[in-house]
Each structure stands twice: as structure tokens, then as C-alpha cells.
Amino acid sequence: MRKIILLTAVIIASVTYSQAQILYRISGKGLKSPSYIVGTYHLAPSSFADSIPGMRQAVEQTNQVCGELDMMDAFKPENTAKLLKAQMLPEGTTLSSLLTAEQLERLNALLLDVMGSNLNDETFAAQMDKMTPAALSTTLSLQSYIKRTESFNPMELIDNYFQMLALQNGKAIKGFETVDFQMGILFGESLEKQVNDLMCMVDHFEETDEMVNRITTAYFSQNLKQIEEAMEEESKVECGTTDEDEDRLINNRNSNWLEMMPSMMAEQPTLFVVGAGHLCGEKGVLRLLEKAGYTVEGVKE
Prior knowledge:
Elements: H1 2-6, E1 23-27, E2 35-40, H2 55-61, E3 64-69, H3 71-74, H4 77-86, H5 95-98, H6 101-115, H7 122-128, H8 133-147, H9 158-168, E4 172-177, H10 179-187, H11 191-203, H12 205-220, H13 224-234, H14 243-267, E5 270-275, H15 285-291, E6 295-298
Parallel strand pairs: 2-5, 3-4, 3-5
Antiparallel strand pairs: 1-2, 1-6
Helix pairs in contact: 4-10, 8-11, 12-13
């Protein structure tokens, strides 16, 4: 559940962050021009960018875009192949072989409900039975989202949009992380841990799906506080995020990014595009920027 919640987006004391907004201006500390940071929901359509107050101005006033990944690098054939391989089990191992008969029965019931088929079907199993438990967990959540989102188009998502727009306008593109690093974050845990996480998700799928839906609704309302509250609540439920998970998936990455942002912003005004969950809380990017001496203001228009 934790990867679905955290990679898909503490009550903050500053009133700057309590408003319904997901775009922020970064200035001060000797910056000649402001930079901006926008929180995204990775499955949001690119068209949603037009509804973010001040977004057009932020795009026009910045000379480069930095995302969690440089998508042009991620789309290289060799990296696409790496990502696909990371989602597959070692040769000779199948998902069915990792599960008990009783676990497999529970999983198949959910697969049939969400995806319309299961591992009893040879054609379906030919691909799905070779997936890692972590990859299957992500697939189940994504498929559930697609079922309730008729307009979903994987080729027109908001994170890619900002980088494509930069390319069209001759602006630089950068990424905080490499494909290899993100593969480790998403699929690097032991198979035993992945199986435990998958089965917990199977047994609490409605609760997991509802939590994802809450965060989705909060994001489209551009309400960072509601996203934060949903993430806090998620950590308290069955299969929720542990402190260790949050450090690995969110906090440690935020700290790494803060080491890179000052030089980028000093070089030229930058639009940072990251999951909205990274903006929240005392260890979120917004608060870390303030602690580093920058002025961080929500953009209202």
C-alpha cells in the first residue's frame, strides 16, 4: 500500500502551506530570479496543468525543468528494457510458486474482480505470473484507477507534459534521480517482503483503493493539506506506511533533492516538478527550502 500512496503524492504550521494550492514560488537567498515547484499526481492528465493558478507564468519565467526523472533518459530503449526487466521475476520463478495455495486463491479472486481474469487463465498467466509481487501491486492499483477514470491516457500525463513543453521551447531538462535509483526504490525489496506487501494489499484492497481515491480527490482540488492528512491517516491503517518506508520513499529523497536544488536555481530559474506528497510536512521540500533560507510562497494567480 505504501508505494501506491506515497509515490502516487504532520500538520504544517505555516499558513503559507494551508491554502488550496500546489504551485510555489522560491526566491531570496541571493537568487536573481525566482524558481518554482509544482506538486503533481503522477496519473493526472496533462490538461490539468491549465487549471493550476499561476502555472503559465511559472512556465514562462523559468529556463529549465527538473523532474524526479529526466523522462527523455527514462524513455531510452536501454532504460525502458531495464525497467521492464526489474518488474519480472528471475528466470524459472513464478508468482504462483512464491505463494501458498490459499494465498493464490485470494489473489486470483481479486485479479478476476479488478482485471477480469486471473492466473488460472494460461494467456493471462503467461505475462502476469512472471511479474514481481511489487510490480503486480502497482498494476492492480493502476488498473483500478483506470476503471474509474474513463479519460485516462498514459501518453498524456502531467509530469511528462512539463518536460515536453520545455523541449518544444528549447529549454533544458534535468532529473533528480536515475532510472536505476528509482528501480531500486520501487522493486528493490526482498521477494519475501514483496509477497507480504502484496497479500496485505489483496486482503485490504477496498481500503487501499479508497485511500488512493481520497488522495486523488485532494490533488484535483489542489489541496495540499488534505493530501497530507490522507497520507498521515494511511500510515495508521493496516498495511500502512512505516517510518522506515517513509524515510526511504519520501524523506531521504527530499533531503537529496535539497542538496541539488540550490546550484540549479543559481544557474537559472528552474521549474521543479515532483509528486505532491514530497511537498508535505516538516520533512517536505517546502519546509526544507525555508530552513535553508529561501522564501517559499504559494502562487495564487
